[in-house]
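Box 3.1 A note on notation
Throughout this textbook, protein chains are presented in two layers. The first layer is the amino acid sequence; the second is a token string describing backbone geometry. Keep the layers aligned when reading.
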Amino acid sequence: MKILLKALLCLTSIALAAGAGMEVPPALADNGSVSSYIGENYGTDAAVKAIQPSWSAAMDPSDPYSNLSKGWAAAADGKAYVIAKGQLTAVSVKTGKPVWRFGRNLNPGPPVYRNGSLYVSAEDGTIYAVNAKSGGKIWSSSIKQKDIRQIDFTKDQLLVLSDHLSAYRLSDGRFQWKDQYEWPLTGGKIWLSGDVILEQHQESGAYMYDKTLAINRTNGKIMWSAQDLGEPLSMTDSSFLVQVPGTLFEQQLLTTLQKIDLKTGRVISETEYNPENIPAGTEGAQPSVGKVFVAGDRIYISFGHKVYAYPLNSDPAKAKKDLYWVEGGRKDFTWAAGPYGDRIFFVGLDNREIYGVKFADKMSVSYNQAVTNPIARFDLLGNGLYIGQTDGIFRAVNLSAAKPVLQLSVPGRNYGPTLRESGMILVQVQGKLLAFPEPAALK
């Protein structure tokens, strides 16, 4: 009876989506985090308590497709920080009232917070460091750098990625160096470990490929470069781990990881994972390559509706592997987030179901009471599962009990990360920041 009821509910949801003329694409996991999921994050309520936000604040809108993973706001020290009307504005998370404002003509997007300071950029390319408590200027950069895509930190430097990677002295904003790479960086991400910065971007020749540069953080000099290396999965001060990507010229048949020397780019070791037991050397064998993520002391490999887990730094041919999937192997699911707490999270391919699979007994926990329309994104914070739907309904769910706690209507369908600060939950949608008290059961 339960199976029949679930099937009817699933068919009803799909029919409603089709009737609305909505095309439902496959779900995509947020590559930036194992505690968030981004699904149909673009454009019949559950029977839970509907609330109004305690307050809301305006934020300068920006292109939602370039900001979904990072959002538009930051929160720390009992305040939320947003760019509103070109100014950096701090508001109390308890009341939503402005505490201070700074600057003008600042670029929209989230301020970057670190150790009591905020970092923002202006339309003219100036970077500012601002005291998060008072709103006073600490420094402005000695040069201007436009089209900033990422800001990060080393011990005593501010690293800024735009068409090139530049470094500024963290204490006073004095420019130190710009990488001397011959071409502008298209796209690009950076990772840090010790005195080495890894920067990865795309280049175009006979075909489009990824290029990785290792840069000495003290002088900006390029230490080595490599093509189609893959993104770092984990890093130490001496090495990093990558998944070997398939290329136009070389197909990967099995999930393959390489350990790379951070200072030289030399391959230290290579390990193949074959959890699906594809016969070695089989002519015409189909590739068996999964998506890899590392959390704690385990390696996880996602194959469609399955997730395998191995101990880190083990021989996969000898190590015990674990398998996680929904209800004994339903194929209409894919990994979404986790590991978080004591479980791995899966979503339905139609973005209308969420399950958590427990580590201890591999049992599936349904969170579908809280899902009544396609999922735009969800975030895991404390004991809370926070779900934003494409119809503008946002729900808070008790993670351990799998029960919806409350819901509110939000003025948008594009969500940034849910934030948690000083007993308040902050919901980001395009152009608005909304807040409500964190329910006691979700702390």
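The chain has one helix and 38 strands. Residues 30-277+288-442 form a domain with the Methylamine Dehydrogenase; Chain H fold (CATH 2.130.10.10).
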